[in-house]
Amino acid sequence: MNNERFSRSIVWRKSSHSSSQGGDCVESAQVSDRIGVRDSKDLSVGHIAVDPASWTVLIGSIRTA
Predict the structure, then answer these.
(1) What is the 3-state secondary structure (H, E, C) of 3-17?
(2) How confident is the model at residue 36 (pLDDT cuts 50, 70, 90)?
(3) What are phi and psi of 55, to 5 degrees?
(4) Dist CA 32 CA 4 (whole Å)
(5) CA-CA 20 to 30 A from 7: which of 31, 39, 46, 57?
């Protein structure tokens, strides 16, 4: 698979809590059967991918914190 073409087809969404002035910038996207999470300030480090159940637990924990 061509990774460059694959990565261009991914639609990343910035967190509503991310700052537009270069602060905390976290993006997520559906990546195959996983949820990709990356730091939009430093794309060179790539992303992590978690299963949907883990993503749901993480988001639920963040929302109640």
Answers:
(1) HHHHHHCCCCEECCC
(2) very high
(3) -60, -45
(4) 15
(5) 57
Residue 7: give the domain boundaries.
3-64
Mean pLDDT across 4-25:
69
Residue 34, Ramachandran bin (φ over 0: left; ψ between -120 and 50: alpha; else beta): beta
Tally of domains within the chain: 1
HEC readout, 19-61: CCCCCCCEEEEEECCEEEEEECCCHHHCEEEECHHHHHHHHHH
* Entry field: residues in the chain: 65
Q: What is the pTM of this model?
A: 0.69
Joined together, the tokens standing for residue 49 give: 């991918």
Is 1 strand, coil or helix? Answer: coil
Residue 22 has which token pair?
A: 């270069």
